[in-house]
Each structure stands twice: as structure tokens, then as C-alpha cells.
Amino acid sequence: MPVISNLVFTKTDSTIVGTWDTDTSSDSNMTAGGKAAIDNGVAPNTTTGHQCVVTGLLPNTLYSCIVTSGGTSSTPQNITTNVAQTRLRTTQATMGASNSTANSPLGDTFRSFVMSNGFTYMSEDDGNGFQIGSTTSYNTQIGKITDENALTGTFVSLSDYGAFNTTNGTDGPGGAAMTNKSTGIFGLNGHMFYHVYRQFPPTYSTNRYGNWIKSTDGGATWNNFTAPSTFTANGTPVTPNSPAEPIQFYDLTIGEVCPVMYAADDGTLGYNTAGNQIDGANAYVYCSFAKDTSQLYLMRIPRIQYEAQTTTAFEYWVGLQSPAVADFVDDTKWSASPTSATNILPTAVNGAWFQIAFVPAINSYIMTTWSGGGGTNFVFYSALTPAGPWTQFFFQNNPTSGQRWYGPFPFHRDLIGNVATNNIPVRIVYQGEPNLGHYRPNWATLTLKTDTLPMANTFIQGNAATTAPTGNSSSLAFSSNVAVGNLLVMGWRRATTGTVTSVTDDMGVGNSWTVVYDTADTGGTSGGWAYVFTKGSGACTVSVNYSTSVAGGVVCIGEWNGPTAVRSNSAASTAGTGTLLTSPSITATAGDLLLGLFQANTGNASVTAGSGYVARESGSAGGVKYELIEDNLSASGGSITATATWGANVVHSTAGIGSFFAQTFTISGGVGASGAGATIAYSGPTSGGTVADGSGNFTISGALNGTYTITPSLTGFIFSPSSRNVNMVSANVTGVNFTAAASSGTGTANDMLNVSRWCTRLWG
Predict the structure, then answer these.
(1) Cα separation, 25 vs 591, whole angstroms
(2) CATH architecture, domain defined by 90-450
(3) Gap between the Cα atoms of 425 and 411, Å rounded
(4) Of 192, 392, 636, 707, which one has the fewest beta carbons inside 10 Å?
(5) Residues 52-73: b if buried by 16+ CB within 10 A, e if exposed
(6) 314, 336 in Cβ contact below 8 A?
(7) What is the DSSP string of 415-484?
């Protein structure tokens, strides 16, 4: 009989995962409260390392858990699932300027996924991918992104799927030929999966024969569950339309299937991957599939059977169109029959190329889509579960004249790296047709606004002056020491041209200044912003460095507590003689810090800040007046215009405005296996509590900069140390560890541990 060892249970609010070892190869089975794991009997019997997951459990509920291998069962352990996770819905968003580059893949359907090798892979239908300059295009290909800022990379051709827009076979309506397309890319267990289907041109309204192919070598070769031996290296069946070799794996009429994006592939099945631990996503791969532009459905398959490409394991969402959060993991809301599936789209929703993605830290979802109309519309929705209810939070009309945009997809890398609970930047990649020519990827940053606001930004100090540049540099010093972790901003204007090469300080602690813009305005003067989240404390002199010597260097520096990055800005502008100066408008979000820069070429002018702004710092020399103003928007966003009224006529003036936002981070650590289930209280700039998982690990999300006190507690145990202080400085903090020991009584520590945990979880 096998000997079971190293048994650990890990819990979410709806699943419990068991991992264990045996001394001989055997099967893997588990129950929680009598409910069987979804992978019982699926894993091969040739392993000594085991894992199983029980799904559809209730939050904050005690379950008796047992694992079994080769007829040997573990001693029952009582495990309490986590409390239900807090969820924040995306309520609005702003989208920045569009970016494009000629040195990028040509094609469409730019869905992406981060694979276990750390690279982002992207689907590219109907183009030549990264074969820049090539005249050969394919129905479908994959790009391996090597430069994520420019969206450039290498090319993986699925040439056997046919040349661009070619058809084959007789499997279409009335025996017509169809064309091959791809619709979703996914990574799991170190492998790549590509969802493909057949489409009937020229209307492209018939999508059928959905399939998914698998590559274990980064896309070099592929196989398929239907009959691997009859598939070519590129994954295509030799006879894709042959009745003897059917290529569909779901219902005949289901074609465009797209996996819901959660965490990146970490080389495992994802059972204990942090970004999957919600809504049973650590147990299932969820997929959406569309039958037309107003019907969207969901199906799920256990992760282990998705990896094995099992043909009969799919279930379909048959719950309400507006489910409660608890409904989504309720097994009774799923059915093996696709004919009873629920259309998850509200009646008014109409779109195409749907993509559903999980947004970490806020524990909710966004859905991107596009639709027709007077142009090509981007219409985005948010929901607390993949099944909805879906609510529109963003709409943008893109006229068809000159540039047609369509098919917007969130960039997976930006989603998996998010730790913010508000003002969340996510790049959206979409298709552009310059002058209605061939496809080209474009991208813009979509900033997600949730139904919570960040901490107010606090002004610390500033300095403003007109300086005579020394050589190629203009410098200013703060009147008092800066604090580690705060936001430092420098703004500048100059009367003659000269590119800004860098902004630096003399603290010598590795600060890295980011120049936001440095463009000439219509009056011949130039200006810009630079910012840094300072890594040290003390006296600080900041310099703006130019490529050539410049005249009329005007600089201003300020220090704020709270924000960490710039969202958007307006370029400098000019105004002629008059008493009112208005900067270009920008689109801001509630909670943003807005900074305005104003300059007037008159020595006796005074500035009155308008539109709710507060004058912070000013300097005057050589006939030039300079002002830095700021305002924290606490409840509203939208298009913002910075205005200033001058106390005297001005001959020449400039203005600029920038929008900054708060970012949050995480604190993680552990209390040891003995402290599993301990309450972890924290206090500081934000306060609250969380619960250590079955291994004693914990994570505190949504932490703003500042000092936190972390205190663990669990009945029957004492912790060493009793609490720890953590200084949060613009980065995640790890390794906040404690040791748990039984507090009193007789018997061994393990005896006390088992009794205490059993009593605590049974009676609270």
C-alpha cells in the first residue's frame, strides 16, 4: 500500500486543492465534505506526485478533506474555505492616444497570452505576421513578442492553414468551401493551445467546427486530439473537411471559441497559481463562444482535461443572464448540453470578437468588443463574474475615413501585472487600416476607473524660479529634505529650442526620472514634465539637461505624497495678449492629481488659479512669471481644462497640464503551516485583515505607500514576533514572515496544533 506524505491543502473561497506525495506510483483522488474532486480518476497512475481540486464550495465553510492513493487514505483534515473575496466593478475608463509602428506584424485578431517561457504570444490572422516586407500572407499565424513596447518579434507560421483568404473543402453551407481562422490563444502546463475554426466567406457569418491544437515546443510543431497521427507538423488535418476525419470538438455550430484570460502559464496546471484563484479558474478553463453578434455563451472544461484535450468534458453555462457571484461556481448552473446554454449578453449588446479577461486586485472582469455603426465602435463592458451581469463602461466611435479601427483586445501582460485597485492602465491592441490599406496593429492605454477612489494626494513642498541655464543644464533645489517614496515632479519651459536629454538629481540612490513630453509648441518655446518616485531621503537638487545650450530656462519642482505615475498630459500651448490663459484639455479620472504649468512674459503679472486649482509655487525673474498649480479631483473626472487669469496684460504665455494617479502594491509573507487559517490584521495608510491559506501564506493587496503594522492571530497559538512593521516604498514587499507555536497545554506541538485547528474551524 502506498505511503502518503507531504500532504498540503490550499483553499480559495470556492475550491480546495490537495497536493501530496506517495512512495510508489498510484492514482490520485480527493473529497471535501464528501464532494469528489473534478480530476478524480483523470491523472495517470504512473506518478508519485499528486494534486486534486474540489470545486463549487461555499465561502467561509468547514469541509472534512481526505485524499486517497492506491487504497490508502489520509487522516481527515478540517479545512475552512476563505471568506468571499471583495470585488470592485470597472465603472468608467479613458483611452489615451493611438500608437502604431511600421515594423510590426500585419494581420488581425491580435489576442495575446503570456506563456511559461516568459514571452507574450499573439494570434495574427489574415496577414504576414512578423515577416516584415513579405508579400506572402497566411490565414493564420502566431507572433512571439520580443519587444512589448513596439509590438515586434518573431514569426510562427501555420502555413498549412492556407494562404491569406484561401478556402478549401466542401464542409460549408450547401457544400461550399470554407476558410481557416483562429480565435484564441492560451497557455497551460508549459504548453501552448490555439483555438481554430472554419468560416464561410464572403459574409463570414457562419463559424463552425471549432477545434483546438496543442504545441509542446513553442509553436514549432502541433498535434490535435482528433487524430494526432494524421495531422501535419503545423497542426492542420490532411483533409479538414472529410466526414471520416471530423474536426469539430464541440457542437457542430460552435466555432469562434476564446478562452477567458487569467494568470500567465507558470508551467503547471495552475491549481495553486495566484491569478487563477477566483471563480474556480484554478480548476477550469473557461471559454466564451459566439454564434452571432448578439449571442455569446460560456463553457468550461477541467484544466487537466483541457491539457489532455478530452473531447467529452465540456459543460455550458445555463444559469441566469444576471447571476449572483455565488451562482457562477454552483455546479447546478452548468450542463453538458450546449442546446440549453444561456446567452450572457444583455439585449442591447451587439458586437464581435469578444474577449473576456480577469483584472487582478479588483477581482472582476472586463469584456472588449467592437461593433458597426457610423464608424467602427469600441464597446467595453464590466462584470463581477464571466457570466455577467455585463454593464457598459466605455464607448468610442472610430470613423472609417482614413483609419478604420476594429477588434480591440486587452494585452495580457498588463492584466497579470496589475496590483492597483483604481486607475488601472491596460494596453488595448486593435487593428488599424491606414487609408483603408492592409491590417496593422495599433494600441492605446485604457485606464480603468473602479467604484473606489485612491487616497488623496498631499502637497509637501515646491520651488519655482526663472534661471539662467549653466551650460546645458537648469537646476533647482528643494527648500527642505524630500521623503523616500514621494512623487517628485519637475516642469520646464525654455525660450529656445534644445532637446531634453535627461532629468537628474544629486541623491545618488538610483532614482530614474521619466520624461513625459518634450515637444515644441506653436509659439516656439518648448516644455515638458519629468517625474520620479524617489528612493531616498534628504536634500535634493534636480536638474533638467538639454542637448544644446538654451536661453530662458524656466524650471519648477514639486513633491507630493501618493501618486506614482503619469496618465496623460497636454502639450504646451501659447496665448497672445490678454488676461486669460487656457491650457489644452486632458481627460482625467476621479482621484487624479492634476498639475498645471504657466509662464507669462511680464514681470508684474500675478496669477489667479481657475477651475478649482490652487496656486502652489511661483517665481519671477527677468520679466518672466512662473506658476505651478495643482488640484486633487476627488469625485469627478472627464475633460479638464486648466485656466489662469493674469493680473496684468501679458505679451507671451505658455501653459501645460498633466494628470497623475495613485498606484497600490502588495505585502506578502507567511506564518508557517502551523498558522494556517490565522487572521492577519494590518494598519497604516490603509487598514483591514486577511486570512492565511492552508500553507500559512498570506497576501495583503491594495497597499498605498507608508508604514504598516502586520499582526497575526489564531486561537491557541502565539506568534514570533507578535507583529512586524513594514515600510512600503513603491514596490511589492515579500518575506513578512512569522513563526506560530502552540501557546499552552500538554502533549506534542503537533497534537496541540491538530486539536486547536479542529476546534477553531469547527466552532469558530
Answers:
(1) 57
(2) 5 Propeller (2.115)
(3) 10
(4) 636
(5) bbbbbbebebbbebbbbbbeee
(6) yes
(7) HHT---SSSEEEEEEEEEEETT-S-EEEEEEEEEEESS-PPPPEEEEEEEEE---BTTEEEEE-SS-B-T
What topology does CATH give the domain 4-80?
Immunoglobulin-like (2.60.40)
209, three cell numbers: 467546427
Cβ atoms within 10 Å of 384's Cβ, excluding its own? 21
- CA dist 71 and 104 (Å) reads 57
Per DSSP (E only), the strands in 189-314 are 191-200, 206-215, 223-224, 256-259, 284-292, 295-302
Is there a common fold for 4-80 and 665-763?
yes
Measured in residues, the chain has a length of 764
Cα distance between residue 393 and residue 387, in whole Å: 17
Locate all alpha helices (DSSP H) within 631-748, ordered by sequence. Answer: none
In percent, the amount of the chain with pLDDT more than 70 equals 71
Within 8 A by CB and 6+ apart from 748, the residues are none
Q: Are strands 733-737 and 665-670 parallel, antiparallel or unpaired?
A: parallel
Query: What's this model's pTM, rounded to 2 decimal places?
Result: 0.62
> What's the CA gap between 468 and 761, in Å, rounded?
71
Highest mean pLDDT: which of 240-254, 403-417, 611-625, 742-756?
403-417
**Spatial contact of 417 and 124, defined as CB atoms under 8 Å apart:** no
Q: What is the 3-state secondary structure (H, E, C) of 148-208?
A: CCCCEEEEEECHHHCECCCCECCCCHHHCCEEEEEEEEEEECCEEEEEEEEEECCCCCEEE
Provide the terminal-to-terminal Cα distance of the chain, rounded to the nearest Å.
Answer: 36
d(Cα 446, Cα 162) in Å, to the nearest integer?
35
The full set of domain ranges for the chain reads 4-80, 90-450, 458-662, 665-763
Task: Give the torsion sign (CA, 177, 181, 187, 190).
Answer: positive
CATH number given to 665-763 = 2.60.40.10
The DSSP result for 45-104, as a single string, is: TTEEEEEEEE-SPPTT-EEEEEEEETTEEPPPEEEEPPPPPP---EEEEEE---EE-SSS
pLDDT per residue as tens digits for the range 505-538: 988 777 778 776 655 444 345 667 777 878 778 8
> Where are the extended beta strands (E) located within 308-373?
315-317, 334-335, 352-359, 364-371
Assess contact for 288 and 349: CB atoms under 8 A. no
Q: How confident is the model at residue 287 (pLDDT cuts 50, 70, 90)?
A: very high
- Residue 416 main-chain phi, psi, to 5 deg: -70, -20
Q: What are phi and psi of 228, to 5 degrees?
A: -55, -35
Cα separation, 693 vs 696, whole angstroms: 5
pLDDT at 732: 80
Burial class (CB in 10 A: 0-12, 13-18, 19+), 575: buried
Judge whether 293 and 350 are in contact, CB under 8 Å.
yes
Quick one: CA torsion of 761, 762, 763, 764, rounded to 10 degrees?
Answer: 20
Instruction: Give 309-328 pLDDT, tens digit per residue.
Output: 887 889 999 999 888 888 99
Residue 756, H or E segment: helix 749-763
pLDDT digits (tens, 9 = 90+) for 632-690: 544 445 666 666 666 666 666 666 666 666 556 788 899 988 888 888 888 776 666 77
Identify the pLDDT of residue 117: 93
> What single string gives the DSSP state of each residue in 514-552?
EEEEEEE-TTS-EEEEEEEE----B--EEEEEESS--SS
d(CA 147, CA 748): 56
Give the DSSP H or E segment for 329: none
Confirm if 268 and 282 have CB atoms less than 8 A apart.
no
Nearest alpha carbon to residue 650 among 598, 710, 690, 692: 598
pLDDT at 267 over 90: yes
